[in-house]
Amino acid sequence: MSAPEPDDDAPTPLEERLIALIREHGPIRIGDFMSDALSHPQHGYYATQDPFGPPKKGQHGGDFTTAPEISQIFGELVGAWLIHAWSEIGEPSAFNLVELGPGRGTLMADILRVAKIRPKFLEAASLFMVENSGRMRYRQQRTLHDTGIEAVWADHLSDVPPGPTLIIGNEFFDCLPIRQFVRTAERSETPWRERLVGVSDEGERPRLCFVLGEEALPGPDGVPPGAMPEAVFETCEAGLSLMDEVAERLSAYKGRALFIDYGHGRSGFGDTFQAVKRHRSWPVLAAPGLADVTAHVDFGALARRGRAQGARVDGPVLQRDFLLRLGLEQRLAAILDVVKDDDTKALLRSGAERLVDADQMGALFKVMAVSSPGLSEPPGFS
User: What is the pLDDT of residues 120-140, one digit of tens each?
Assistant: First the structure.
């Protein structure tokens, strides 16, 4: 199926701004485009759109749906995993419970509901929600209002105070800015060029387009051998820097982090830069600010970085395997035993199936755990 064209051919305010910037200063990196498209304070996606929700007939209904919105079982199993992690680090009487990119707050609400079975866990937890978007913070505050747990919102993980820490990040790394490099046919020590965003004047109006940078470059850090001409290699320095920060924190203080995202377990070649709107593929440079833009996560690169900083890294494993090992089927059966309505039962079954089906989220999404040195293998990884 071909990607849909934008409904209105008029440029968005952000597109006009980017075109003017490029005309004045030259092409920009893909990561700079991503940062503005997602997080520009006036015209970015998270400042202007309500991204979450299933498709609705005849109306917008959101652009994508995350696992916590699909099934409560996802958050319940993650909550149980975090409680176990708290036990593994010695049940400290005070610790940081941190979520990176909390969406609408649904995942944390499910985690806190499960945590009621261990009151001491909740009593010890200081909850931090790392979120830059004021619009999303408001949604999270509404979702968590009735949990009875006071949360603190932070701009960065570095804003969270030192101490024992448990971290959860679901679909967080995929929206961090990337760079792309293209292997040319040149036979030299510098056969790579960076893929950038420029301006095309072909057609009825100027549009953003991909161009190659003029500077010839050596192979980027982490590139595997054997790249053929036209091969694309992606890097995400922001993700690697965050992994450094997580690993350094967990090396200094006991803790664990759990990351769930779509991506690949081994570093390789390919263009994964993409956009989605109304649950469908969208031209990635079209109408910036109106569509979600992401890239697949290179879990192999993240794992190497975490281990290099001295942390224990487990995974990545398929989301399907992780959730089934944690007891998804047993939890679903327990819920169905107390639900009487057939329609509700059908929704519960379909939601759980979507999480683990290999053709849906089960194989595309991967799970990785990062732990303090000396901790044992966490549940779900063997």
Answer: 999 999 999 999 888 899 999
Residue 8, pLDDT score: 59
- The beta-strand segments (E) located in the chain are 28-29, 95-100, 125-130, 151-154, 165-170, 179-183, 192-200, 207-212, 232-235, 255-264, 274-277, 280-282, 292-294, 297-298, 312-318, 365-371
What would the pLDDT profile of 302-318 be if each residue is shown by its tens digit? 999 999 999 999 999 99
The neighbouring-strand residues paired with 282 are 275
Identity of residue 238: A
Mind giving me the DSSP string for 2-55? PPPPPS--SPPHHHHHHHHHHHHH--EEHHHHHHHHHH-TTTSHHHH---BS--
SS3 (DSSP) at 211: strand
Cα distances from 54 to residues 16, 68, 75, in angstroms, run: 30, 12, 18
Average pLDDT (24-35) is: 97
Q: Using CA atoms, how far apart are residues 128 and 160, in angstroms rounded to an integer?
A: 7
C-beta of residue 66 within 8 angstroms of C-beta of residue 321: no
Is the predicted pLDDT of residue 28 greater than 50, yes or no?
yes
In the chain the domains, ranked by start, together with CATH numbers, are 67-176+250-266+293-365 (3.40.50.150)
Enumerate residues 6+ apart whose C-beta is below 8 A from 10: none
Q: Which residues contact 61 (CB under 8 A, 6 or more apart)?
A: 53, 54, 55, 278
pTM greater than 0.90 (yes/no): yes
Distance, CA of 135 to CA of 325 (rounded, Å): 36
The one-letter amino acid at 331: R
pLDDT digit string, tens, across residues 314-344: 999 999 999 999 999 999 999 999 999 999 9
Where does residue 377 rank: exposed (0-12), middle (13-18), buried (19+ CB within 10 A)?
A: exposed
Residue 295 has pLDDT above 50, yes or no: yes
Interatomic CA distance for residues 189 and 202, integer angstroms: 34
pLDDT digits (tens, 9 = 90+) for 204-231: 899 999 999 999 999 999 999 999 999 9
Read off the tokens for 367.
Answer: 């799970």
Q: How far apart are CA 148 and CA 269, in angstroms?
A: 47
| Three-state secondary structure readout of 72-98 | HHHHHHHHHHHHHHHHHCCCCCCEEEE
Q: How many CB atoms lie within 10 A of CB 187?
A: 6
